[in-house]
Amino acid sequence: MTDEELEGLEELEGLAGLFGSGPVAVLTGAGISTDSGIPDYRGAGSPPRTPMRIDQFMTDPAYRTRFWAGARLGADAARGIRPNAGHLALARLEAGGLIDGVITQNVDGLHERAGTSRLVELHGRGGTIRCVDCGTRFTREEVLRWFDAGNPGYAERNAGARIAPDGDAEVGSLDGVTIPRCPVCGGILRPDVVYFGETVPAPVFAAAESLVASAGALLLAGTSLAVNTGVRLLHRARARGIPIAVINRGPTAADASADLRLEAGTSEALAALADRLLSGRPARPGA
Fold first, then answer.
1. Residue 282 lies inside a defined structural domain of this protein
2. Which pLDDT score, from 0 to 100, does residue 39 have?
3. How many helices (H) and strands (E) does the chain have?
4. Is residue 111 among the annotated active site residues?
5. pTM for this entry
């Protein structure tokens, strides 16, 4: 056995040991979805990106036009995206009673598709669109059909666009592009997500806090903790004195206080962890 293999075995045993004091709270970030083909904002090798702020989206029609064009092209690029081994491993750990659910900073819906039943989506879900004026909600798919009706041939002329974080795509010319409006009141349509410049709704954060408050440890998977909400949950775990573990490629805001840090991809690490913990173990009744 090589030194690297031995070190990995020891770290896996350490991760498995986190579950000795009860279910573990899990917080995931963009790094868990990169193996599904969704790029992140800050991972190693990622090009510099500037996420759109809510004030830009609301006040500048050019930003909204670029968003909806990117969303339309991203829908084609994202059709083949599926939950990966990391998402599936967490669903297995929940079914086995070893975690009580997942807190995620992602808006891609992959945890739900993988089978996680108790899911706290801190930043919302990109697949839901709401009107900022009347509050009516629509699916992303139907709004993109309205985009196609208003911009015939646009998707075909721009096929092959490269996918960007959050399931959008990089776009070129926006000449002549029109964007959909709410069919109920004519208002502005936006994804039902928390943009930069907004805060996580209090009930959503309370649900995440509840998972941390009842956990025997906190596991951070695929997140650098660059967003304040995740840092607040880390502080809750520190205040309780529970163990903290990190699985991530690259540095995180939790490294200085983590009891265990694994420099690795989440897919292979979580899959190996689930195999280690669930071998021969029946699933929790009703899971």
1. yes
2. 76
3. 10, 9
4. no
5. 0.87
